Every structure is written in structure tokens, then in C-alpha cells.
Amino acid sequence: MLDATTILHARILIVDDQHANVLLLEQMLRARGYTNIASTMDPRSVCALHAEQQFDLILLDLQMPLMDGFEVMDELRQIDHSSYLPVLVITAQPDHKLRALQAGARDFVSKPFDVIEVQTRIHNMLEVRLLYRRLENHKQLLEQAVAERTEELRISEARFKSFTELSSDWYWEQDKHGQFTSLSGTAVEILGLEGGGAGWNTAEHAQLLQNIANRQPFLDFICHRTQPDGDIQTMQVSGEPVFDQAARFIGYRGVGMDITPRRVLSGFSAADFLAD
Q1: What span, in angstroms and rounded, lies between the C-alpha atoms of 71 and 184?
Q2: For residues 20 and 29, what is the distance between their CA atoms, to the nearest angstrom?
Q3: 57 and 129 in contact (C-beta within 8 Å)?
Q4: DSSP assignment of 156-176, as one string?
């Protein structure tokens, strides 16, 4: 809710071609404690004033020379694209009330004024208007925060992708049926998936599949693959099962690394593996 001070500091514009009516409304508003009151007797100046000051409430007389209140509201809608046009119309014509509401006014008061009614309608309309403006500001802040976060995620994703392309590690994800849904870098080539994934050590591959079938995590699992040229690849793979918020299994994710060069540097060779 809004505190009384916020409402009393709202920006109010009085539009009436009768000086006596302007004075009456000003005195009534000041007596209630409103402090930010402007007025004009020229309806043609309303749009320029509103564009400059963004009034929280416009008290608008409908019957004026040069430009009536309906024409003023038509022009206001051209510059105020919010769904809440802050206009409270003042009219002595009962048949104008419905037309004014259809034209975009939010409320109306009748001439001659009932002071209590006018004060109540002004207070209620200001409260709604200020809450609406607060909501709009909050919405804009949320949209800005979402846009900033989206950009941060985009940059982070680009960095991660760059790192994976430079790294010898590869990252993988599978669905609950064991089908790869994501593979980073050159994993498709490394794993021999283009050739149907042939060449893997049968016993090791079966053990790895059993771990996955049991939905067990595995760390630094070593497996070997014979390439078409006869060389032996050594892979180190880690993975963990993934569950949704309802604890339902939805797949696996993990990391892998081709550690064949490390084995070679450690004194191993393809012949050593074949000799095993």
C-alpha cells in the first residue's frame, strides 16, 4: 500500500476554462494537503504540460471552448501510451459520463461539486494510479534484470564453448534412453560415433553400460577403443545420473578425456595395449 505522504505529493493538473472552478478545486485540494498542483484554463496546452510533467491525475472539464474535454483525451492518448490514462472528468451533463468513460477517462465527478465525493474520488484514483505506476516501474526493472541476466548467460555460454574447444576434455549428456543429447568439441570424432561407435573394448563397454543402467555415478572410468588404423585410444570418463524435481531419472551427464598421449608419454604404446 501507499503511504499518505506519497499520495499527497502526487502531481495534479486542473483543466477548466472557468477561473472560479479552478480556484475552488485548488483550494479544496490544498485543504486536503495536496502540495503539487498545477492548473490551466487553456485546454490546448494540456498535452504539452502532461508530456513535460507526467501528471498522476488530470481533473478535466468537458465543456470548454476551443477544445472540449473529449478532444483533449483524444490528444492525450496519442502521447500517453500506457493503458491507464489518468483523467477524472468534470461534467454537469449526465449523458456525458458514459461517453467520457468510453473515451478513456477513469472516473468522473458531477457539477455542482459534492466536496466529500470529489475528495474521495481523487484520493482513490490517485492511489490506483500510483500503484499502477509502481507496478510498471517494477515490471521495467524486472525486464531489465532479465535482459542483463540473459546477456550474462550468453557471454558465459560463449566463454564455456570457447574453453571446451580449446580443452582436451569433452562434455556429454544423455537422455534416459541412453541417447546422446549433447556432445561438446570433437567428441563425435573422438568417440568414433560417425562410424557407429565401433572398436570399443567389449568388457569395458559392457561394464560402463551396466553402471549407467544401474544409474550409478562413475569417476575416472578407463576404457579403450581400437581405431581403424589399429592404434589404441585410452579414454577416461566420469558421469553422474540426473533426476528432475520429482526424483525421476532423466539421463546422465559427465566429462571425458582422451588420455592416450599421456599414456604414450608414460612409456605405453599401442603395442603395449595389444600385448595385454
Answers
A1: 63
A2: 14
A3: yes
A4: HHHHHHHHHHHSSEEEEEEET
pTM reported for the whole predicted model: 0.54
Q: How does pLDDT run across 38-86, given as a tens digit for each residue?
A: 999 999 999 999 999 999 999 999 889 889 988 998 999 888 777 678 8
| Cα gap 157→155, rounded to integer Å | 5
CB neighbours of 126 closer than 8 A, spacing ≥ 6? 7, 10, 12, 56, 57
CATH 3.30.420.40 fits 167-275, yes or no: no
Hey, which CATH number is domain 4-131, 3.40.50.2300, 3.40.50.450, 3.30.230.10, 3.30.70.420? 3.40.50.2300
For the stretch 217-263, pLDDT in tens is: 989 999 888 888 888 888 888 999 999 999 999 999 988 888 886 54
Q: Which residues contact 274 (CB under 8 A, 6 or more apart)?
A: 232
| Separation CA 118–CA 215 (nearest Å) | 71
Bridge partners (DSSP) listed for residue 40: 15
- Asked whether 42 and 165 are in contact (CB, 8 A), the reply is no
Cα angle, residue 132 at apex, residues 128 and 137 outer, rounded to 5°: 150
Q: How far apart are CA 65 and CA 45, in angstroms?
A: 13
Domain with CATH 3.30.450.20 in the chain: 167-275
